[in-house]
């Protein structure tokens, strides 16, 4: 009979010791760090910091809190065994865990022998690539200048915003990606232009009506 009573008494004491641990999480440049995962070892519960870097988690005295975030080193901190009151404030500074990588230039040679042969032959290997790049930029400028207005749907704007956020997280503390040199991005762009990416609804409806008119004239003839 005494064992269940002592177990219940221990649970009540544990509940009475619950405290709220809160503070702000920043990086080594004093910038707030959002979406940091926090986990209580004793309670087996977790939470996440807000966009402003502020966090709040329920814990116990003597507990261990684990922290992890993308682009930062994992860390942990211990709570004192004796805490006065129900609240405990602790500000945290995370250490950056990324490596800066220099830009890479991709050249049109598979092996060193091909590179050596082309260099010795004095052939302007990069000239066609540069010409194609300027042609693509001129084509984009012409398409945009000839399009008076176009509409972007809320779904497309949301996808673009989420993609920008993902790119910013993946390239944090690194050099940004330059899509002007990405052939897959160019292929996706021209495929979208081909299927009416830069056309507004009015121009699309006008083109459809002109096509129907031509078909009717051809059937009458």
Q: What class would the helix/strand composition place it in?
A: alpha/beta
What is the strand tally?
A: 8
Low-pLDDT runs of 5+ residues are: none
Task: Name the helix and strand elements from N-terminus to C-terminus, one letter apiece.
Answer: HEEEEEEEEHHHHH
* Number of discrete domains: 2
Tally the helices: 6
The biggest beta sheet is recorded as: 4 strands, mixed
Helical percentage: 40-55%
Overall average pLDDT: 76
What portion of the residues fall into strands of 2 or more residues? 15-25%
Q: Could you give the distance between the termini?
A: 103 Å
Q: Note the overall shape.
A: elongated
Radius of gyration from CA coordinates: 30 Å
């Amino acid at each position: 009979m005494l064992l269940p009573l002592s177990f219940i008494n221990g649970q009540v004491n544990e509940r009475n010791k619950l405290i709220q641990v809160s503070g702000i999480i920043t990086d080594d440049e004093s910038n707030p760090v959002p979406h940091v995962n926090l986990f209580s070892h004793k309670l087996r519960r977790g939470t996440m910091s807000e966009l402003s870097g502020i966090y709040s988690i329920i814990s116990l005295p003597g507990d261990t809190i684990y922290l992890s975030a993308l682009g930062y080193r994992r860390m942990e901190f211990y709570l004192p065994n004796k805490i006065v009151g129900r609240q405990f404030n602790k500000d945290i500074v995370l250490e950056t865990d990324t490596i800066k990588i220099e830009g890479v230039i991709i050249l049109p040679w598979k092996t060193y022998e091909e590179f050596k042969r082309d260099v010795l032959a004095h052939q302007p290997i990069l000239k066609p690539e540069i010409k194609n790049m300027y042609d693509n930029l001129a084509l984009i400028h012409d398409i945009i200048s000839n399009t008076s207005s176009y509409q972007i749907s809320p779904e497309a704007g949301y996808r673009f915003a989420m993609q920008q956020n993902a790119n910013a997280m993946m390239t944090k503390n690194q050099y940004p990606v330059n899509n002007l040199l990405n052939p897959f991005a160019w292929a996706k762009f021209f495929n979208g232009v081909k299927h009416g990416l830069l056309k507004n609804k009015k121009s699309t409806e006008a083109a459809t009506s002109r096509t129907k008119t031509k078909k009717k004239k051809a059937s009458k003839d």
